[in-house]
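Lab meeting minutes (informal)
Scribe: AK
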Amino acid sequence: MKHLTECPERKSLNDDIHARPYLELNPPQQISYLALLVNREERLREAGHLAALCEHFGIPAPIMDGKDIFVDFGTFRLKMEVHAEYTHYKVIRQAPLQDPFADPPIVSVPEAWLQGLPGKVLVGIHVAILDESNSALNLDPEYLPHYFEGNRLIGGKIAGGNGTAVSDFLLHEDGFSRLLIIDHQFAPGQSGRSLQRLLEIETYRMLALLGLPKAKAIMPELPEADHQLVKLTASLDEDDGRSDETLLDELTRLAATIENKVSATYARFNATRNYASLVTIRLEQLRESKIEGIPSFTEFLERRLNPAISTCNSVDHWLHQLAHRISNVNQLLLTRIDVRRKQQNQEILESLNRRAKIQLRLQQAIEGLSVMAITYTAVSLLGVFLGGFKAIGLHINSELVMAIFIPVIGYFVYSGVVKLHKTIEQEDHE
C-alpha cells in the first residue's frame, strides 16, 4: 500500500465508524446523563471547561481531537460526546446497594463546574443498571414504581428479553428524569448498547420536539394568510377597483411574510423529521417486547411523538404550499401587467407614428414652399442682375429671361433638396 496514492480522507472516514464506542457497563452502575444544546461560541468553550475539571481533580486534561472524550477521575468516570447541535455528558460510577436514585453520580462533580457548563440543558436523566440477582434491592415489577415516587411506568423487555427497562418520563425535583435497566442475561457489551439506544431515543425525541413550539406559534397565522391569498386571487378575476400595481404590492408583502417564515423554520422542521426517523430506528434496534400492564416505549412514544411530528409537517407543508400558490398568482399578475403595458406601449407607438406622418407631411409642404421661395428669390435676384444691363445701355428683355429661367432655377433648387435628403438618410444608415 505504501506505493499507492491514498484518498486524503481515507483514514478519517475509516476511523469514523469507530467513533463514539459503547460503554462497557457491568451492573450495578449509575449514570447521570446531560444533553446540552450549544451554539458556536459555547462549543469553543467546551475544551477549556473540561480542562478546568481535570485541573480541579489534579489529572492531565485530555486532547480534544475527537468526537468523544473519556476521562477516569477515580471515584467516577466522565464520557463527553460532541454532536452537531448538542453535547452530552455521562457521569458513571458504581451503584449503591440501597435506593439506586438516592445518590446520583452527578453529585461527585463540583456544582460550580456544572453551573458553568456551556449550553442549555435539553435532557437530564439519572440511570441505574442493576442485576436481577441483587438481593439488596426489590426488583419485583409491582415494587418498581417505588423507585419513581409512585409514578406510572413505561417500559418493556429489551435486547430480545435479556433485560428490562422502565421510566416514568417525568422530571423529578432535581430536574432529572429516571431510567432503570435490569440485567437479566445481557451479553458482554449489551448493557452499554442498550443504554446508548435508550438515551438516544430520549435525546432525539426532545430534539425532534424543538420544532413544535415554532409550529404552534405559526399555525394561527396561516388561515389568515390563506384567506388573504384567496381574496387577492379573486381580485384578479373580479374588478374591485384596485389597480394591478396595488394588488402586486399586497401580494409582494404577503410573499415576503410567508418566505420569511419558511426560511425561519426550514432547518428546524427538517431536523425534526430527521430526529423523528432516528427515534424510530433506535426503537427498532431496542428489540422491545411488551410487559403486561404497562405501555411499552414504542407504544408510548409513537402515541405522543407522532402527533407532534405531524403538526410540524402539516405547518411546513402549508407554508410551502402558500409560497407556491403565491408564486403562481404573482406570475399571473405580472403577466397581466406586462400584457397591459405592451398594449399601452403599442398605443403610444401608434400615436407617435401618426404624429411622425403628420410631421412628415408638414415638412414636405414646408420643403415645397421652400423650393418655391428659393426659386422666387433667385429669379428676383436675376431680375435685379438683368436690370443692371439696362443701366449701361444694353437692351435685354429681362421679363422674358426671368420667365425662361424660372423652371431651370426651380429644377436645380429641387435637385439640391433631394440630394440633401439622400445625404441625411445615408448618414442615418451608417
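Next up, CB showed the second protein from the same session:
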Amino acid sequence: MQRSHIAALGFGLGGIALFSGMDAIIKHLSSSEHALVVALGRYVCALPFALVIWARAGRPSVTLEMLKAHALRGAIIATAGALFMWALGVMPLADAITLSFVAPLIIPFVAAVMLKERVRMANVVASGVGFVGAVIAVSGGGDAAVASGRDGALYQLGVLAMLLFSLLYAVQVSLLRSRAERDGSAIVGVLGTALPALLLVAPAAAFGSVPATASLPFFLGMGAIGAMSLWMLTEAYARAEAQVIAPLEFTALPWAALFGYAFFAEVPRVELWLGAAIIVAACLWSGWRNTRDAAGIAEAP
C-alpha cells in the first residue's frame, strides 16, 4: 500500500467524522433558524478558518481562471448545502445521512464521465453492497418518523431533497477532484466557502432573518469544523482518485447514529446498525482493493 494512499484514507476518514459532527450542529440550528440562513452562516463562519489555512499554506495566488473554474462548483455547493440543511431539520439525523449515501454510490460513475477515471470492478461491487446496506438501514424510517409525531409529508419532501442533494454532491466532488491537484487544498477551501457564501446572501436575506444571539456560538463551531473537514477531504481527493475516497462517505452513518442518539434522543433502529455494518465492510474492502490496485499488487492465483 502506497504511503500517499494511506494518508488519503486517513484524511478522508477524519474529514467525514468532522463533517458528521458539523451535521449535528446544523440539525440543532435548523430547528430554530431558516435553512438558507444556516447555509449562509455555515460558509461565512468557515471562511475565516479557511483563510487561516490559506495563509499558513503561503498565501497561494488566486487567479481569474481559478475563480471562473470554481464558479460552477460554488453554485452547486450553495444549492446542495441549502437542500441538505433543510432536510436535516425535518428528518432524523441518521435517516438523512443514510439517504446521502446515494452520492458516494454514483461518484465513481460521475467521475468516469467528467474526469475519464476508470471504474474498477471493486467500486462497482462496493457500490452495490453499500446500496443494499443503505436500503436496510433506512427501512422503516418513514413509519418511525410518523410514530414519533413528525410530519410524514415533510419527511417525504426531505427524502426528495436528500436525493437531489446527493446528485449535486456527486457532481461537485468530481469538480473538486479536477481542481484539487492543480489549485491545492488551501485555494479549493477558500473558494469553496467564499463563493457559496456570496451566492447565498441574497436568498438568505429575502427569506430568512437575523439569527438569534444564542445561535451564534453554534454558527462559529459549525464554521470551524466545516473548514477543517473540507481541508482534510480536499487533501484526500488530491492524493487519490475520487472512487478511492468516495466509499469512505459511508462511515458517516455510525457517526450520525451516535450523534443523533446523544444530542437528539433519536434511538437507532436495529436495521440501521445492520445496514451500517454492511456499508462499513464494503468501504473497507473497497479501500483495500483500490490501494492494492494503485500499488500494482497482483492478485494471487
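CB comment: Confidence is low (pLDDT under 50) at residues 297-301.
No objections, moving on.
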